[in-house]
Design brief:
Blueprint lengths: L8 E2 L8 E2 L11 E10 L2 E6 L6 E5 L5 H9 L4 E10 L4 E11 L13 E7 L4 E6 L2 E5 L6 E3 L2 E4 L5 E7 L2 E13 L6 E10 L5 E7 L6
Parallel strand pairs: 5-7
Antiparallel strand pairs: 1-2, 3-4, 3-6, 4-5, 6-7, 7-15, 8-9, 8-16, 9-10, 10-11, 12-13, 13-14, 14-15, 15-16
Amino acid sequence: MNRNRVLPLLLAPLLASCQSFFAGPPPSHPGERLQGTVEQRDGRLLLSPCTGTGRFELAEQPELGLGEDARALGAGRLLFADLRGELDTARARFIASRVYRLQAEGPGCDEQSFRPLMVRASGHEPEWNLSLTAQGLLLQRPGQPQLALPYLEEQLPGGQASYSSEADGQRLELWIAPQRCVDSASGSISHLTAELRLNQDKPLRGCAYFGAARDH
């Protein structure tokens, strides 16, 4: 299986002693990626984008199940949605074709780290959160030191990908796959499943999503 590598990148100060290699991102999907709050009113979904002052009726491709997920996640609650689709400004309508995230809690539009983010994965029992950027990966776990490492990315068939690192005496692998995933604690919905393997520990499972730096 081929691995595409580019020139080493110096990591951020946290990773100043390491180097990292990456595969190029796959082609972008058509449509526009849009984030905002979703309100459920009179059987309709209304989307207010994070940037701008407009409001759009939120429609969806039939197989998406966005309306059903929104009702299950919290009727009468404001939700945060991260979507891709076609924006029809003339009809004040956004037709979603892909759901990156649908959440009832979290930073939503105020997520400061979203722009440089490539992938974020997280899970529970035990809690873990892993962020990948072009500068490296950062694994955070309660009660344990943060683990910052360089990594290699490998694109796999069917839209799957793996991210692996062997540095500083650690062996880490993150596997993601394009499949609807429901967070076991919050009920949040994302478009990727994740599995984390660290050294010889038992694999940890969770959900993941693409950030703005992996916009496809």
